[in-house]
Amino acid sequence: MESSHLFSQYNTYPGTWDEMYQDKAIRSKYQQVFADISHLPEEVLQQKDKQASELFMNQGITFTVYSDNAGIERIFPFDIIPRILTSAEWDHIEKGIKQRLKALNLFLKDIYTTQQIVKDKVVPAELIATCPHYTREIFGIKVPHDLYVHISGIDLIRGEDGVFYILEDNLRTPSGVSYMMENREVTKRIFPGMLTDSKVRMINNYPLLLHDILISLAPQQLSEPTVVLLTPGVFNSAYFEHSFLARQMGIPLVEGRDLVVNNHKVYMKTTAGLQQVHVIYRRIDDEFLDPLVFKPDSALGVPGLISAYRKENVAIVNAVGNGVADDKAIYAYVPNMIKYYLNEETILPNVPTYGLENMDARTYVFENIGKMVIKQTNQSGGYGMVMGDKAGEKEIDAIKKAITANPREFIAQPIIKLSTVPCFINGKLQPRHVDLRPYALCGPAGIRIVPGGLTRVALREGSLVVNSSQGGGSKDTWVVDL
Amino acid sequence: MLSRIADSLFWLNRYMERSDCLLRVVYTNYILSFDAGNSTSFSWKDAITIFSPTAEDVINPTDDSTSAALKYLINDSKNLNAAKILLTKARENARGVQDNITKEVWEQVNQLYHLVNQSDMEKKLGGSRSLEIIEQLYQNSTLYYGVTDSTMPRGQGWNFMNLGKFIERCLMTIDTTFAHFKKIDHQLNNPQDILFWRNLLLSLSGYELYLKAYNRDQHNLNIIDHILFNKNFPRSLHYSLNRISRYLNEVVEDTKIEGSEKLHKSFGRIYSKIEFSDINMVQEISLPYFLFSLRKELVEFSNQLTRIYFSYA
What we know:
The structure holds two protein chains of two kinds. By secondary structure, chain A is an alpha+beta fold. Chain A has helices spanning 3-8, 28-37, 42-58, 87-111, 116-119, 125-129, 177-190, 192-198, 206-216, 239-249, 305-310, 334-342, 359-367, 393-405; strands at 21-22, 25-26, 62-67, 70-75, 78-86, 151-153, 155-158, 164-168, 227-230, 253-254, 259-262, 265-270, 273-276, 279-282, 315-317, 354-355, 372-376, 385-387, 410-414, 420-425, 428-433, 439-443, 446-449, 455-458, 472-480. The two termini of chain A are 31 Å apart. Chain B is an all-alpha fold. Chain B has two domains: 1-153, no CATH class; 169-313, no CATH class. In chain B, helix 1 (3-32) runs antiparallel to helix 4 (66-75), helix 1 (3-32) runs antiparallel to helix 8 and helix 6 runs antiparallel to helix 8. Chain A binds chain B through residues 57-60, 73, 233-234, 239-240, 243-244, 246-247, 251-255, 257-258, 268-273, and chain B through 1-6, 92, 95-96, 98-100, 103, 106-107, 110-111, 114, 156, 160, 251, 254-257, 309, 312-313.
């Protein structure tokens, strides 16, 4: 069967923005890809699909699923058809993310020093006070160049109107950038001609940009500061990414037990004795960083690390305490922050969000709960989410009760049908919902975003949940100059 | 270099070397198992004893049963020295140091791991495809050495990897030799023909070199000379200790930390036992005692190395 046949079976979802089709016509950004694959027989696509899986498996880009006490290694599902953005779409996204990050960095500086934004009542004080990620322990600590968010993975979605919305700000330890890069490497192997045909912008300088930023954060003027990547260890599900980045930047990958703090300085234990560390790109959450300040029973971190941080003897990337800025309830106030700090209109809009402490909003949400998604403010990864249109009566009642008891812990948003992209599933091209996570890097010289990012795709038919823990996969993401 | 990284690189290569020796022994024995019926009696017991000296109970039921022995040596999760377990441990170590080994090395270790962990392994080992599997494993193990040699950067990491590899190789050579000489109760004056020794020599990849380098009488003594003192034989004790000496010197010079001088001296004492001795001295002391004491000292040396360079936890 020719695959142009496969395309003819492609039925877009009603009321959803499809990235490839507009009515029955193919959007211009997808025409080159369509021309490249439409003459390929199904068997060839199957073969390429298999080849891609093997490439991930052989490189050990896997996560372990435990069942019956035996670990089974699985790859993160990868769909071979790329997701395409035009340069115009990308310029808009890039501007919007830069604006947002500028404001969020200023907010973090403000909230951990003078708290002017609270005094001016732009963000309610109760909201900060009740935020579990607001970290009093680091109040007043000075960070290099006043930068808090060095690496971000802000999630975007595209609604049925074709507008890109900000879904979530990930400002702590966003992951997935290695998949963005490996997806591209795999595409190079399975569709070598297509990338050049479409003039896709390159992304593989990401680790170099990141390394430059890490070096620039060293507390003293050193010609060769020691920069390390701190990982929780091989059992962490993102371990592949940690070792991938360390390797690409040529910096040591360390665990908490490799580091020791002496006289407010951080050292690593080497075969030739102790060696001072100046910058730590940590992939460990705040609460595990230092048992003397946070969780006393955690062995993942380094005792005394925060004291070295306070004395400005070591830089920690991203800064500690960023969770207050990507809290789901604070999220609703980001457009106000942009206005307050930058005096600009928001370029990328938020998804309308209802804080549930407000009685009017709560009543409205309860009345329209079939059209709403309820999220817990302190959860991520697609956990703690109730989709009003899918949930049963019992679940709805339970969540209503929970909201009434603790309104601060929940927000509600109207369900937005994410845009769809063709995916090669079971030998056919089928539409599936996607989001987009571009990775932005902030350094003293400004903000850089590699063109594209990670497109996550909900592989189950009709599903809107793209998280890898819940049946999601990913796609290579192209920015093309038309 | 981080102590933890050095530790993992050391053990990565110890496990890879052990599994390489195991696979070579399995391959050799599998091929020779078809030659039963001539003057040499074949038994899987000997191969199993090398890797599980205390596993008396598994020896009897699997005696002479090829598929049971293969399953035990390659695929039995309860056998700590099964290829599956060794390669899993090697991979665990490699995983923790992925940024310190090349992509090529990691992929080779990973491939071996997936090969030995394929779901229908047990069935394949029992069937007509067992030789195919053994060969595949053995070839990939050999590839690991080639990939490592041609891609790994020289330096600290390389030195620790080689220390692991050659310490393990010495131990494996001692264990393999010991097991075979035990079959003749270490009676060196009781001459055996070359067919008897073929298993030992092939298990160490030293058969052809032996035929070229030694005359055809006095096999017992010549083989000891070959395995202990032949400088050109890459699995001889002399060759392996010589390599350890070389890499140890580099490590000691590079790091110069407390205890390294002492370590250097204890190795010197072990090395001199091979470098400044010959077959007559071995006979004087008796072969089993010579091998036994050398083994003990090597293990102690390895522990000392661990204490000095890898104490990070």
